[in-house]
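User: Can you recover a sequence for this backbone? Please restate the input before giving your answer.

Assistant: Of course. Working from this structure:
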């Protein structure tokens, strides 16, 4: 039996009686990038947080690396989470910590590496996202929006994950920095981490990085397929959504 990086079966989730996810199912193969698009409030981030074990479903199953995680305790989830990196929409950096200490944080919390080993790995992952040692002492407030995004990606990469989860990685960025982030996700796919789920509203990013593209509408996937198939779908609701996002 094949083991998928992520497998979601009939996932349902409600908040205050409002059903956000209404039976979402999908499989993510190792080495694949799935991009999930949908309107504001469609449940994209809710779906991603279930894959990370940050939310528990009302019904359905979530399997990560072949293990059902929906009912695991926080302690039981730790070994699974150490195999994944999560890039939050706003980067979620600690305001009072330097770039070095932000990126080093997961290693200090979850490994027994020496400070020298931690420093080497921090410098290495920053280089992967195009940042040099000159940024190490800077605080998040001293970084541009694009640099904060890249530091957030570096922090997710520092634990050497097998799976990356990106929540709106280009939100709030200008076209130039959005393109840089898209190219970075592609580069990661060819190198340190080749499996990912990317939640986005950015049509160009979806075209750039997706192996498969899913459109989340009314709590379900309206369509899933190769980007070219989805972009030329004959489904009127899908085309209306894509036309609106492209403007």
């Amino acid at each position: 039996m094949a083991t998928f990086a992520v497998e979601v079966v009939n996932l349902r989730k409600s908040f205050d009686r409002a059903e956000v996810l209404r039976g979402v199912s999908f499989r993510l193969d190792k080495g694949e990038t799935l991009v999930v698009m949908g309107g504001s409030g469609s449940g994209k981030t809710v779906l991603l947080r279930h894959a990370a074990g940050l939310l528990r479903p009302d019904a359905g199953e979530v399997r990560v690396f072949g293990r059902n995680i929906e009912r695991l305790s926080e302690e039981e989830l730790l070994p699974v989470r150490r195999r994944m990196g999560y890039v939050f929409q706003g980067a979620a950096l600690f305001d009072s910590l330097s770039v070095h200490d932000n990126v080093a944080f997961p290693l200090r919390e979850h490994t027994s590496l020496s400070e020298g080993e931690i420093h080497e790995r921090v410098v290495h992952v920053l280089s992967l996202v195009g940042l040099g040692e000159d940024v190490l002492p800077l605080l998040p407030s001293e970084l541009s929006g694009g640099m904060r995004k890249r530091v957030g990606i570096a922090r997710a990469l520092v634990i050497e994950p097998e799976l990356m989860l990106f929540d709106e990685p280009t939100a709030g960025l200008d076209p130039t920095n959005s393109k840089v982030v898209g190219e970075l996700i592609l580069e990661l796919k060819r190198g340190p981490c080749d499996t990912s789920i990317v939640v986005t509203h950015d049509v160009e990013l979806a075209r750039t990085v997706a192996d498969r593209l899913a459109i989340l509408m009314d709590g379900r996937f309206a369509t899933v397929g190769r980007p070219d198939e989805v972009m030329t779908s004959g489904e009127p609701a899908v085309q209306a959504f894509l036309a609106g996002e492209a403007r």
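That completes the design. Residues 97-160 form one domain.
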